[in-house]
Design brief:
Length: 618
Amino acid sequence: MADDKITTAAPVLNEKPAVRDVEETSSIRKADSYSDVDIDAIIPGSEGVTQRDMDTYRHVADTMPLSAWFVVIVEFAERWTYYGTTNLYNNYIRAALPRDSRDGRVIHDRAQGVAGALGQGQQTAFALSTFNSFFVYVTPWVGAILADTIWGRYKTIMIFALVCLAGHIILVGSATPSSLQNTDGAVGLLALSIVVMGLGAGAIKANVSPLIAEQYTGKLRKQVLPSGETVIYSPPLTIQSIYLYFYAAINLGAAGAISASFLARDNGYWAAFLVPTAIFCVVPVVLAVGKKKYVVTPPRGSILLETLRVLRMAMAPAWSLNPAYTCRVIKSDGFWDAAKPSHYPAGQVPAHITWDDEFVGEVARTCNACGVFMFLPIFWLCYSQCDGNLGTMAAAMRLDGTPNDLIQNLNPISILVFIPIMDKLVYPTLRRYRINFSPIKRIFTGFIVAGIAMLYAGVLQHFLFQRSPCHDNEPSACMDEAGDPNPTNISVWVVAGPYMLVGLSEVFASITSLEYAFTKAPKRMRSVVMAFSQFMIALSSALNFAFTELNKEKMFGWLFGTFGIAAWVAGFLFLWTFWDLDQREAELNAIGTGEREGFAGEDAALTTAPGSLVTEKK
């Protein structure tokens, strides 16, 4: 990407709203039929595309720019190192050193043996793993604020990549044979590494997702393919495709961590943690090599204070002891009027209003995006079982030479299988038949599939209790007289079902939430909105602590059943709550497409829905 495409100008909060944007958006909202507009007029921001073209030709995704592939490589390496370490936490913390082992490797009965080191038990393993998930998804706020106000996304990612690397080095130190001789010291180093790596990984996470989508600067255009077919290259579809492959990079990195399970079992935990540390060194190198090719968005100044002031002014008329009244006012069309300068007579605008009407529209759009994420903690509760409890279940089953924590890699592998199927077959087929599988509907589907995965796990746990030699007395810790594992006579591969179903649910819910966060967030607020979407995982981890008593092996059946039913209930409530937003998808995308965000020259594109009369900012 050429240097002249690097963004250099920051918007001014008190600039006058774009008249063209307001008028066209208003007319768009009023347009109910083709009689309201000229369908042969060129769509603003496109390269000669008309509404008639949009309704006539097939819509396809554009190619990804080289700079976006650099971001993919960064994410691949970062996720390999993350999952290459966190996938081992459950065994590393829960299980004690195997017989005659000094570094966690299995020396006797390697076919059925389980690697271990700290011997802190299931609940401590659950607590530390859950804290790791909580912390790594709280720290995106740090990265988002620093990127938006001081450093910009690129510099923020580079700095916190070095922080994360330091955390990995500390983790390797915690797992050396000499460190494991002092269990308390090893646990302390582990906790320190979790904090340092969580700070680095979280700050990266808030910025790498919007960074990859910002690399695409193409416009809506039509083109004749070598086959003779005329197609519409759609920026919205391109963004959707970019996030599908971005998520594929995440899960390819997670699948690449398969070696970690074998390294821990056969060579000890210090070796298993050292390999991801070495791979992480790729991240700053690739960032440095691609520096001049990235489309870089500079820091745009702090907008959090202004956003909070807008919210305070808009909420002032809504406060009431009657919650029904408050909800009714919030949902009303004029809810945001009190925060708009145009709401006040000339010369009577409150002095503390330093923004314009368009900024209020951006805040409203941001709140819409963030509101959609509020149901996701229930979804992430289901996903969290992949990191620990399902691995504990696998430890109770017949391994036949397969490390129990290897099975969880079926989750990213299944995602890698499902992504091209959805991108190349399912989604294009739905579009061909004019079936609008919108983001809201995709997220709803993710809830339903995640619930099915949890019920599958609950039924499997029931059979484990029945068939284990130890029955419901911790089948994962069942030993024979020699002190070697005495597993249930059920193949560990049976537990693949929940991992694969959760993977499919992520394709619907998690990938779509990234896409939704980017497309619904104003340009200046993308890192913040992305941080908010990641924060839902932190809330899920905090909520998970409320189920500490159920996070005991003998209670797993109740735990999985509870999460499965909760996912279904949350899914239907989600669909019911946001059905209105789903029907207004195109209208919401039209907000904020004025000159401030590039309406006149850059980034304006028509929505993907055939027959739509609305421009969508990407």
